[in-house]
Specification:
Layout (H helix, E strand, L loop, with lengths): L1 H18 L3 H12 L4 H9 L4 H40 L18 H15 L3 E2 L5 E2 L1 H4 L25 E2 L5 H10 L3 E10 L11 E11 L4 H16 L5 E5 L5 E10 L16 E10 L1 H6 L8 E8 H9 L12 H4 L3
Parallel strand pairs: 1-4
Antiparallel strand pairs: 2-3, 4-5, 5-9, 6-7, 7-8, 8-9
Helix pairs in contact: 1-2, 1-4, 2-4, 3-4, 5-10
The structure holds 3,4-dihydroxyphenylalanine.
3,4-dihydroxyphenylalanine (DAH) binds next to β8 and β9.
Length: 340
């Protein structure tokens, strides 16, 4: 009687274990069958009331049933755990063989783009590309360029003076001096670079900007040669034929000195806001190298002469790309930079 009840409990439990659809259902079966107040426990209690010889065989039978049920619970529980892990792994699956996205790729700054173009052009015309220090001596920035001690450019208003008498170069012209010192005549060189002036910053003024200096020293260099090179340069930068004009301009290191204007590329000379209705846009300073400048750097002005020019690279980039505020260029703002 007892034996068949145990049998029945066992097979019922095994069935329910097999049919359980979740760990929670399984737990209910466990509590019901082998829990502390479960069905099996009742059998144990009842067995205590039986005669000793019956007790023994029933005890064995009960223990066997208990072990069987517990083993079935264990293995079903393990199945649920495996399934749970499996579906988590499916959900969180990561393809480690996919290529990584990699770093974001940058690109050259608009001023660098213009600078490289000009370097390439002048290199093709036989010019060396020279570099000079941004921290300059007073001698290279001023004295050797025939800029007298009382010239307003030396004023603290314009120049960032450093302790000890050096300064942040106010133009790229000192690299002319270094070029003459190092290479001597005949000389063809350009020097692009960063320059500094003590300006209050607004849409068209920056304390830090870029220039490109050029110098050619040879025998019998003329203003016609100067104009030829300037036109070649501007035609390359603006990618079309440009009309230029020279006006007299004063720079202590050239004589005669000129301001070179380009006929406005936007209106073609008829007048617009960009050229302030004049039809012309001021582009660069230039001239024939002053004999004092040659002499100071050990070049005989009776044998050699040359031209020099200084171009605002920042200004040129602004014209080329139609940038209306100089402050964008050094803002580091990606919304601006990513357009180039
Ligand atoms: N250094 C001058 C400036 O910063 C520009 C300049 C003018 C350079 C005439 C030259 C030159 O070489 O010949 O305004």
């Amino acid at each position: 009687m007892l034996a068949s009840s145990i049998e029945e409990l066992e097979s019922r439990s095994l069935e329910r274990i097999a049919a359980a659809r979740s760990a929670e259902e399984l737990e209910t079966v466990r509590v019901d069958a082998v829990g502390r107040k479960g069905r099996l426990d009742q059998f144990f209690k009842e067995m205590g009331k039986r005669a000793p010889e019956e007790r023994k065989s029933a005890g064995q039978r009960l223990n066997a049933a208990k072990q069987k049920i517990e083993a079935a619970l264990e293995s079903r529980k393990a199945e649920f755990a495996r399934a749970a892990l499996g579906s988590r792994l499916d959900a969180e699956w990561l393809d480690l063989t996919l290529p990584a996205p990699g770093p974001r790729r940058g690109h050259a700054h608009p001023i660098t783009l213009i600078q490289r173009e000009l370097e390439e052009l002048f290199a093709s015309l036989g010019f060396a590309v020279l570099d000079g220090p941004e921290v300059e001596t007073e001698y290279h920035n001023f004295d050797a360029l025939n800029i007298p001690a009382d010239h307003p450019a030396r004023d603290a208003q314009d120049t960032f003076w450093l302790e000890g008498g050096n300064l942040l170069r106010t133009h790229t012209s000192p690299v002319q001096v270094r070029g003459m010192e190092r290479l001597g005549p005949p000389l063809r060189m350009i020097a692009p670079g960063r320059t500094f002036r003590n300006e209050s910053v607004d849409a068209s003024h920056e304390h830090t900007f870029y220039q490109l200096e050029g110098m050619m020293i040879d025998r019998q260099v003329s203003v016609a040669n100067l104009i030829h090179f300037m036109k070649a340069m501007l035609t390359a930068v603006f990618r079309r034929e440009v009309t230029v004009r020279l006006r007299p301009g004063f720079f202590p290191f050239v004589e005669p000195g000129f301001e070179l204007d380009v006929q406005c590329l936007l209106c073609g000379g008829s007048g617009c806001p960009v050229c302030k209705q004049s039809g012309w846009v001021e582009q660069l300073g230039c001239g024939l190298v002053h004999p004092n400048v040659l002499r100071t750097s050990g070049i005989d002005p009776d044998e050699w002469n040359g031209f020099a020019f200084g171009l605002g690279l920042t200004r040129l980039a602004m014209m080329r790309y139609g940038i209306d505020d100089i402050r964008w260029l050094q803002s580091g703002d990606l919304r601006f930079l990513e357009q180039f």
